[in-house]
Fold these 2 entries.
Entry 1:
Amino acid sequence: MMRVYWQILRNEFKTLLRAKWVLGYGLIFLLLTDTLFRFAGGGTEVWVSVSNIMLLLIPIISLIYGLLYIYQSRDYLELLLTQPVNRSTLFWGLYTGISAPLTVAFIVGSALPLVWHGGLTEGTASQLFLVLTLGSVLTFIFVGLGFVMGLWFYDDKIKGFGFSIIIWLFMAIIYDGLIMVVIFLFGDYPLETGIIAVTMLNPLDLARILILMEFDISSLMGYTGAVFNQFFGTSLGTIASLAMLSLWLVIPSWMGLRVFKKKDF
Amino acid sequence: MIQINQLTKTFGQLKVLNDLTLEIPDGQATGIVGPNGAGKTTFIKTLLGLVKPDSGDITISGIHLNGNYDYRRNIGYMPQQARYPEQMIVSDLLDFIEDLRGEEAIYKQNLINEFNLQPELHKQLRVLSGGNKQKVGATLGMMFNPRILFFDEPTAGLDPRSSFIFKERIQKENNAGKTVLITSHIMSELEQLVDHVIFILEGDIKYYGRIDKLLKENRQERLEGAIAKLMEEPIQ
């Protein structure tokens, strides 16, 4: 079983690297960090900017890539499924085989400029770690969502793309908009606890807040920032956000696995 | 031996396989015919575990298919159209499937020579012609020397020479005692390759038996005529 898994994983790595665009994806982050180092001079500013771009790019690219992979590999999936392999093993092999190279491209691309710019000080090490970890987790989450969409709308690509874009729009933009509306309408009430709970339901918001906390930008957010800090700054907050992120890691892949195991190909 | 018992599959409202019960003995060469959308491909895919039946059961070589996957070691399958990862190199694909199964493909070189794939081996799959992709598909299906072979419209994209080589190969496999199952729209081809035929119409088996018997019953010289006649009969 493990052998089969590694074979699939290795093959996906090979195929993706040959496709070259993954290298391009890594290159984007490399150029980004490098440029930021040159202009912002290193330190916190670099990683704040990287995290902003990452929060924008990673979800949409991972989502679309996961979706496209399913659509482009239909016959290949058939070939693999007719081999004496277990569907679960196959699923994990493909899922991690797609997510891992993207993650590696992101990590290497973002961190490589450190080699010639130096700039890794004690203060920025934990920031760098957080940005890279969140980027990796988001890659896995959104590739998983892409897989789910692709498997769900296996024969209806338009719907698959449509719903994927909606998911992304919702999580990246609309969700925050709705929170703003709620805050605007019910600003007279003590909403902070509720808002904390609601933000934790969206992995992008969760990532954004963790970054805000780490970079101490929360002080710019006045009272809300203080409330956020009070919660996310504590060990309970850390544990809760880690738990929510792990849950977000598990849910799409688990759903994907379930659909994959039952699906008629 | 392939035993199928009350196999039923519906896609939404459409009943694709309707309570099929049949037995295919070892070593038999069987053609599956029927109009487009009759359920031929679904039938083969169900045997392969690609499609999960709603009810009924399938036993292949004594193994009951129930989430089981190792039985596929005995089955070679060549799909209707073969599109593989475009960037992949032919020899890498063959090697990968070998590694995946942890099994030596004993007929690999033999099939590569027979299908004249040697010059294509180091090319990416996307630059291969449709016919050559078919040949790669056929190689993948047969290279592990499985006891049971499924071919879905195998010669559709092949030129006459490749088609001839391919058919000779199937006959050889069948003579060696392999169970062969072929779907095709080319009746003359089936006459050459198989002696039994399953005629599926709207998910039901309209006929299953020897071809010569079918010809005699319908007073036809050729399979094509006999099948055409069967199709004209009103559906009960």
Entry 2:
Amino acid sequence: MTPGAPDLKPSQTGPLGVYLHIPFCRQRCHYCSFNTGPYRPAAMERFLSALLSEIDLVGEARWAGGVSIGTVFFGGGTPSLLEGDEMEAVLNRLRKRFTLAPAAEVTVECNPESLTRDKAEGCRLAGVNRLSLGVQSLDDDLLARLGRLHSPVEARRAFNEARAAGFDNLSVDLMYGLPGLDLARWESAVGEILAWRPEHLSAYALTLDEGSRWASEGVAGLPDEDTVTAQYWALARLARQTGYEHYEISNYARDGFRSRHNQVYWRAEEYLAFGPGACGFLGDVRYGNVKPVERYCAMLEAGSLPLGTHEVLTPGQREAERRILGLRLTDGVPLPWLKDRRPLIDTWHSLGLLEIAGGRCRLTEAGFLLSDSLFVHLL
Amino acid sequence: MWGLEPSSRKTASSRDILSIVTLSRIRNFSIVAHIDHGKSTLADRLLALTGAMDPKKAVDQVLDSMDLERERGITIKQHTVCLPYRARDGQEYTLNLIDTPGHVDFSYEVSRSLAACEGALLIVDAAQGVEAQTLANFHLALEAHLTIIPIINKIDLPQADPEGTRRQIAEILGLNPDDTIAISAKIGTGVPEVLEAIVHRIPPPPGDPAAPLKALVFDSFYDPYQGVVVYVRIFDGRVRAGMPALLMSNGRVYEVQQVGVFRPEMRIVDELAAGEVGYLTAGIKRVADAKVGETIADANRPAAVPFPGYRDAKPMVFAGLYPVEDTAYQSLRDALEKLRLNDSALTYEPETSLALGVGFRSGFLGLLHMEIVQERLEREFGLTLIITSPSVRYRVVPTAGETVEIDNPSKLPSSGEIDHIEEPYVRASVFAPTEFMNPIYRLAQDKRGTHRSLEYLGKRVHITFDFPLAEIIVDFYDRLKSISKGYASLDYEFLEFRPSDLVKLDILLNGDPVDALSVILHRDKAYEKGKTLAEKLRAVIPRQLFEVAIQAAIGSRVIARETVKAIRKNVTAKCYGGDITRKRKLLEKQKEGKKRMKQLGKVEVPQEAFLSVLRS
């Protein structure tokens, strides 16, 4: 990362995404490496005030008034710890400083135990129109092992209450490759979730990321690669049979319900970021805020932007990102983007890992599983 | 010449008389020793004592000037220095110290230096005693008819045993124990006596300054500004700038541009006369144009008979050098050419490998020489290289036609066309404490050695074996050191070619032979080696998009097989806003690693795969 303040300014004319990081949890999950700390009401209050100041500060930029926001994503942490009026205050501040498009997608990540009927309705009234529910597993033992605070019963309740509160765009997060998770239990969990008919499903194979408890302490009983691979394929098959599109490596959607916000990332479009450790992309600069909540708040209280790191992308790096992010989507990338990688593309094509159609090149479901082996050659 | 101003040499007659006086004040000598017995330390000490160098700078061994030499603690290229010395008899002497390399690969270079001397200091470590290279160097010095001054070094060490060492010098080398000088080069004890012994025991050089010029080239190096700097020992006559120098082996004539001596820096003098050692430059472009052993004469008054040719530096070990990136071929060629300017023992010629593309078949004096060349190519020229398994040169006697020599296993004709194959043998000399005899014999047996002689020397033994050279170029020395806790020492010399039951072992990746991984070896060892190689390759070849079958085969018979399973998944599950930079950097790092990969067909093989063959 280069020192000195970057020139942060959007270069695209279309709407931007906005990511808001809510850095608190009641309990940290054992696999989690995100920037989050223990929830305390006072800390939350101080943080929210800093968050609003950050929106104000960025909003003072000359270009801010002309910016339209197409998607908003409250991530965390546990954003569902926020009350409806708090979400509304944040959204209102965005509306005040920027232009929030009337049809903007506004998502909040929710943990089942903190999503009540009242909370869901509060969200909806605040202007949230999409909830992403962190179900992760439908197995009591596994949820306990993961360090989650909810039970499968609570997960079902939360989903139903979100529906009852009027949400017609719900996403569910699931994890596979978990210690002790066999193929049969996985298939049964996927079967049940799909029967809920969420509009969207994200399913991630467990990775032991640096910063997580499991990465530092280790975890027993991880399934072997063949099992994890079988779980991937079981999900892909069941989702296809029930009408879901496998539109990104780890994401499935019913027709018309892809995550618009996340597609901003994969299409290498620009987005603003607010909150500690949140990362944004403007012009040719990728930047990240400082991570410690205390420091983040203190900087904003002193009236300065909480910028931590930034990197100005070279044109080559931008292109590389477009290729490797674009290929995460089933839409793939225009064939000319890969024209200088012909022998590689031919090999991947011959192995059934990649398809070429309509002037585009896209990974197959088999290709998704090996995608990093391709991406390393596309830098 | 020391103490005499060139201007005082007015007339031919007075000059000749003065030169004769000068001759009696010159001593030309080398220091020879087993590795680590303290040769360079003594050289530095002599420099400091004679004032050729500031003692404060003598902390580092100045004669070992190449970085690599310093790191490895050995001398590769020799250096020469002229030491002015006022002896106890009150006379000024010029002592020409010709430094010599101290590793078994470079015994040829030692012999070149010795031919320019009348005497040699033979150093023996008081704690280690006589070692294999002590003996080898002793014989080289004897062959060169040198006066040998035995020196017992490191007498300051607590474990030093000067008396035992003195006995060994008498018993093993047959030298008079009363002639030994006990010293500590490190702290300086006894070094003044060494200087006196050089003056009084080593004879002054013979030679006739009035005769036609006859000078011997005993080393050279390439200087980008002056061309080749030739190290010469003048045997007859004199040489000065402006003279036409005739290189007798090729008949070429160069005008001498500069003559000088090493003090230790290069210092220009008016002339070098019979008996003296120094350098000359003559606009010679490559080291190979003024080969070691060359006789230089005055083109206007050619010497009648050139010196009998020195042994030419003969590469013993051959390997393919390939750039990992095909585009670096030209850079590799330029780099080799530059190294060759300074290293006449290095040979190379273009070679094409189906697996590795275009590269060079290179010849080295030994494995250390090979490693040094590789390191210099990578370090000084920034190249990333793949080195194929080292090979010796084999003689292939076909059923019909003439015998051919091959140094590349992939060039071996098919077995039907071969009557038999001969391989080079060496006579190896091993010194070790008696307690390590058994493991040494076991190692020798494993390496197809034939026992020749055994001699007990108190608590130590001297064993000689005949070995196929191929068996000892790879890991013999390391294993010998390890089984003897570092105490055994080794020296060897080429003996002859002998018929052997040799076969070619091929490695196939997904059915395609990888020519660069082929090795020639004894039939009895092929099965074991094939198995080991396949296992090692399985361990270093990363999993790929498809299964990779590794086979070791002799002809069409597969003797070992291993499989690298296809990779099942390699995917980043989550890649959202904050993950993108981290992910790209991770991939960038992996891509760096890929630079050391070679694409063989569709299979990606890391550089380590070739190294693993080399080391197994």
